[in-house]
Design brief:
The protein has three domains: 19-262, HUPs (Rossmann fold); 307-392, Anticodon-binding domain of a subclass of class I aminoacyl-tRNA synthetases (Four Helix Bundle (Hemerythrin (Met), subunit A), Up-down Bundle), CATH 1.20.120; 404-478, no CATH class. Helix content is 46%, strand content 15%. It is built from 16 helices and 15 strands. Strands 4-3-9-10 form a four-stranded parallel beta sheet, with helices on both faces. It has a four-stranded antiparallel beta sheet with strand order 5-6-7-8. The protein has a three-stranded mixed beta sheet with strand order 12-11-13, with helices on one face.
């Protein structure tokens, strides 16, 4: 597998530090507002990398942090006459729900910055002790020019970095480039040897990465907007504190743009994930994102999204038709198939999801041909390939729902045994009748009438319909 390493500015063969084990860190959200399509692009991209590494057989430990202490969170709290805890918790839950709807897997570790303050203080103390940081009036700053490799990630000479840098203007700093490790804050702060205050943004990720993954990690990923200053600063403080290389492979995804401008909250040109999901399903959004190489910008366009929706429908229809034709039978092992090899060739070439999708579309075409030619063995193979490869890219294949007529036909065969229904209710048709049956079963469960609840499940199972219970309610589907 080859990936583009931003640090070396080249394509490199991926070789983990520790055999088959991979440690991967992705900068998570600052939870103070609704997540937008730019966030979707970032976290879908690294969700695919996570899934693909596991598909290749690696043992992956994926850490994605939550920044829940930050100037923006405090500003929002003041605006709403609330607290940072209330604001960050609200938007964390909104973010988590959005990721769930996009079928983005939860990371193995999801640390909160506020739970890692002790580790941050420890790193800052080491940096002060070794002369890489200094304390002044309760603030602590990192001496940028003492770290000779500063600017290597962003490929900028240190003399050119002041212009455009997100540096805080302060007369107490030794140098304009020096960045904050700790900020004095009497109103909202944590006790430390330096002052009552809070950490700078950059030290948060260094501390959480070290705590959960170690001093040197395999992969650190995030949006291209984080290269400077965030990731540049992470490298400086981590390597000076730890005395070793921080990250072996730096990966960055491109922006989502609107009218060629980066989508961002500061420009107020962003589209929230919830707004997107009101008009497009998660699979459509994923195709829209993965059709483009992860390092390239993606231009937001309703026309392109409509095309992505048509593309997903083509895949979904091919799977549904093939599954119906093969009666659910698939080949148990397709690992050595031409399609899987072609898919791996694409993904091994710096996660070329565009070519990987082309393999899936070709397979969908072949599945349709196999059904048309009554070739059951080929259909079983192509169905297995489609189910496997779409899963690796994080798509969610939904089972085709029974038609109104077919559902009603099946239900009529068990109506006589549903003595809890009135004659009027038995005259209902299709989906309406199924809703009524589900309603009775939910009522029976609520009343702990397990006899009726189990009877409904058994009768439906007989006609090939299964019930799935969750805290959101009960749904039914064909076996």
């Amino acid at each position: 597998m080859k990936i583009f390493n931003t640090y070396s500015n080249s394509i490199e063969e991926f070789k983990p530090l520790n055999g088959n084990n991979v440690n991967m860190y992705v900068c998570g959200p600052t939870v103070y507002d609704y997540p937008h399509l730019g966030h979707a692009r970032c976290y879908i991209t690294w969700d695919v990398l996570y899934r693909y590494l596991k598909f290749l057989g690696y043992n992956v430990k994926y850490c994605r942090n939550i920044t829940d202490v930050d100037d923006k969170i405090l500003k929002k709290a003041r605006e709403e006459n609330s607290t940072a805890e209330v604001i960050s918790r609200r938007y964390y839950e909104i973010f988590s729900e959005a990721m769930k709807k996009l079928n983005v897997l939860k990371p193995d570790v999801e640390p909160f910055a506020t739970k890692t303050i002790g580790e941050m203080i420890s790193i800052i103390k080491d940096l002060i002790k070794n002369g890489y940081a200094y304390e002044v009036e309760g603030d602590v700053y990192f001496r940028v020019k003492k770290f000779k490799q500063y600017g290597y990630l962003s490929k900028q000479p240190i003399e050119d970095l002041i212009a455009g840098a997100r540096v805080e203007t302060s007369s107490i700093k030794e140098d304009a480039l020096d960045f904050a490790l700790w900020k004095k804050d009497e109103e909202f702060g944590y006790m430390s040897p330096f002052s009552k205050g809070r950490p700078g943004w950059h030290i948060e990720c260094s501390a959480m990465a070290r705590k959960h993954l170690g001093k040197t990690i395999d992969i650190h990923a995030g949006g291209a907007d984080l290269i400077f200053p965030h990731h540049e600063n992470e490298i400086a403080q981590s390597e000076c504190a730890n005395g070793c290389k921080f990250v072996n492979y730096w990966l960055h995804n491109g922006f989502v743009t609107i009218n060629k401008e980066k989508m961002s909250k500061s420009l107020k040109n962003f589209v929230t994930i919830n707004d997107m999901l009101a008009n497009y399903d998660s699979n459509t959004i994923r195709i829209f994102i993965l059709t483009n190489h992860y390092r390239m910008p993606v231009e937001f366009s309703s026309d392109v999204l409509d095309g992505a929706r048509a593309g997903w429908k083509r895949i979904q229809t091919a799977v549904n038709q093939a599954v119906k034709f093969t009666q659910g039978e698939i080949l148990p092992d397709i690992s050595d198939s031409d399609e899987v090899r072609a898919f791996k060739d694409a993904m091994d070439n710096d996660l070329n999801t565009s070519k990987a999708l082309a393999v899936i579309f070709d397979t969908a075409t072949n599945a349709n041909k196999a059904v048309a030619q009554n070739d059951k063995e080929s259909a079983k193979k192509y169905t297995a390939v489609l189910l496997k490869l779409t899963d690796v890219l994080g798509f969610n294949i939904e089972k085709e729902k029974l038609s109104e007529e077919e559902l009603h036909s099946r239900l009529t065969t068990i109506l006589d045994e549903m003595d809890f229904l009135t004659e009027e209710e038995k005259s209902l048709t299709g989906y309406t009748l199924m809703d009524k049956i589900t309603e009775y079963r939910n009522k029976a469960r609520a009343e702990k009438n397990w006899a009726i609840a189990d009877k409904v499940r058994t009768l439906l199972d007989r006609i090939g319909i299964i019930l799935k219970d969750s805290k959101e309610g009960t749904v039914w589907e064909e076996k």
